[in-house]
Amino acid sequence: MNLPNSITLSRIATVPILIWVLSPHFPVNGPNGEQELIASGLFIAASITDGLDGYLARRRGQITTLGMLLDPLADKLMVATALILLVAYTPDVMKPWIAVLVVGREFLVSGLRAIASSEGFTIEASDLGKLKTVTQIVAVVAAILSHRWDHWQMGWYPFPVRLTAVIAVYWMTIVSIISAVDYFIGFWQKIDHVAEGRRKRRASFVLSRRKKQEAGVQS
What we know:
Blueprint: H1 3-21, H2 34-59, H3 65-89, H4 96-118, H5 127-146, E1 152-154, E2 157-159, H6 161-218
């Protein structure tokens, strides 16, 4: 147990707290949006730890098997929890089919990553995957805030909170689909390369055995 892994565990511990904060039983639920602001701040803080634990693990040379297991697990738990909660919390912004699609995408990528690991190779996170993470943070925070505010009056300009949330949610969905397709293409290319290498080694092995058998017969 080191500092990066402790930070990752703190992100997992944030999940039940987020459930409590977004529940009707949360005691701080005033007319000024205290509940929404606390939930947004909690999700943003947890999202920051997502990059912090990986940075510290690389910087301090503390990349461990436990960390490699917990980090993606914590990410999936946070995203899935937030989206499922928002289906009930802001149903006009977070549609059920969007939550199912995005959570399903996370399971798909996790499955492909597990297969890749069992085959002895890894697929690096692309820029699309990083963009997907950013859009998820923006969409979740905007959806939470839209529960209380339709817009923020900033001087003469009414900033459209609800419209921003709707756009961010659909943009998150589009980017999630595109990044999943990109990840699948990268996985397929590598798995096909691995399979081709195995076929060549098997053919070489069979040919070598055949030559040895023929040499034995001749002798």
